[in-house]
């Protein structure tokens, strides 16, 4: 059974999923099915919520199972726990990710100035109706 101890807090999503799948290979079919449903729930939550909060949720559930307060096969209770566990503040924020990404690229270049995205000049099309004199001049050529 999974443990709440160790380096789990350092694992990224792909490393976690890989290790989780390897770990459940030796489980009996009922437990394996339940744990795959739990993994599915985690990956669905990871779409909307930060990986740190999803990992904390898994740690919470694993601890409940270790203490025999919950069973892996009780998916309804696990889903109910998920409904109560995640908060609005756990939501992934694309703006924050973009800002962090921009800051990392600036830091990596060794430049402490804020990166300014390139701008494209506004193109203006101006329609000009020729005057009678301009038309006459053009026609005389």
Explain what this protein looks like in three dimensions.
The chain is mostly helical and 141 residues long. It has a domain at 8-90. The chain has 6 helices and no strands. The longest helix is centred in the N-terminal third of the chain and has 20 residues, at 29-48. The N and C termini lie far apart (92 Å). Mean pLDDT is 77; it is low at 1-5, 94-101 and 113-126.
Average the pLDDT over all residues and give the rounded result.
77
Largest sheet: none
Provide the β-strand percentage band. under 5%
Count of helices? 6
* Structural class assignment: mainly alpha
Question: How is the topology of this model organized?
Answer:
Elements: H1 13-24, H2 29-48, H3 51-66, H4 75-85, H5 94-108, H6 132-139
Short description:
This protein has 141 residues and is an all-alpha fold.
Keywords:
141 residues, mainly alpha, 6 helices, 58% helix, rod-shaped, disordered N terminus
